[in-house]
Design goal:
This protein is an all-alpha fold and 296 residues long. The protein has a single domain, classed as MetI-like (MetI-like fold), CATH 1.10.3720.10. The protein contains twelve helices and two strands, in the order αββααααααααααα. A hairpin with an 8-residue loop joins β1 and β2. The chain is globular, with a radius of gyration of 24 Å.
Length: 296
């Protein structure tokens, strides 16, 4: 009997350490976040005033800057989905061929994602500098001095400039995933298509894209979740300015928490932000499931 019980409990004992870690660092913090969102608290004094759903009401009805930050993060996400992933796929297809020094290219393209976001932001802040930045100096030498400006301080260009930094840092993740997906496609399919007279575009359209569709969906999901949570680059470059023009949800939540000392309100913003990301992920998984069923 004892041996039978031990065997029955063994799987749960193996899972227990992982569950305890998950409960300690995920479930309990989420519970505390949800609980604090119901209080008015400055984060310092021991007394907290229960306000119920008032914080959530303020988030939905009286927080234009918070919702503006979503649109701005969405703009960066759209650029990343189109340009960052297109660059990642193009480079993956180039490296997937039998190129001389292909291993070196793989290392080089994967370097930006592993760099610190703060370090990347500081370097690009120097590149974009309006007085002695490399980008402006390059424009002047090309005869385009009229285009020179302080890119991160100009409300018209700051958000796009931040998006460029984010895409430069993030394309390596998509590159690695796309490359792994391309290597699973049998080369015999390309050879047969070439024999039948298919050109490069036809091979890409009818072989690469259909077989790479699940990978594209995965990369899109990771891009959306990662870009919507952009934080370090903005802190290192613009800190949400000028005039909230590069504010994103996480920097807005941080400003509510530390700048305004409204921890309960910031927690309610965090809950809303998390639920929106969850819904977006759920929709994408549903769409990917439908695509898989249609292919089947």
């Amino acid at each position: 009997m004892t041996t039978t019980r031990t065997r029955a409990l063994a799987p749960y004992l193996y899972v227990l350490p992982a569950f305890l870690l998950f409960a300690t660092f995920s479930i309990y913090p989420f519970y505390k976040l949800a609980a604090l969102s119901l209080f008015d608290w400055d984060g310092i004094t021991p007394t907290m005033r229960f306000v119920g759903l008032a914080n959530y009401q303020e988030v939905f009805a009286h927080s234009p800057v918070f919702w503006r930050s979503f649109w701005q993060a969405g703009y960066i996400t759209l650029l990343a989905l189109v340009f960052q992933n297109a660059l990642a796929l193009a480079l993956a297809m180039a490296v997937n061929r039998e190129l001389r020094g292909g291993a070196a290219y793989r290392v080089i393209f994967y370097l930006p994602p592993i760099l610190s976001g703060i370090v990347v932001g500081l370097i690009w802040g120097w590149i974009y500098d309006g007085n002695f930045g490399v980008f402006n100096e390059t424009l002047k030498r090309l005869g385009l001095g009229d285009w020179a400006r302080s890119w991160l301080a100009d409300p018209k260009t700051a958000l796009t400039a931040v998006a460029v930094i984010h895409m430069w840092k993030g394309f390596g993740w998509g590159f690695v995933i796309f490359l792994a997906g391309l290597q699973t496609i049998p080369q015999e399919l390309y050879e047969a298509a070439t024999v039948d007279g298919a050109n490069a575009w036809c091979r890409f359209r009818h072989i690469t894209l259909p077989l790479l569709a699940p990978v594209c969906i995965l990369v899109s999901i990771l891009t959306i979740l990662g870009t919507m949570q952009i934080f370090e680059i903005i802190v290192a470059t613009t800190q949400g300015g000028p005039g909230y023009h590069t504010e994103v949800p996480i920097t807005r939540i941080l400003a509510s928490m530390l700048g305004s000392s409204r921890f309960g309100y910031a927690c309610s913003q965090g809950i809303v932000f998390g639920l929106i990301l969850f819904v977006v992920s759920l929709i994408q998984f549903r769409l990917s499931g439908r695509m898989e069923r249609r292919r089947a």
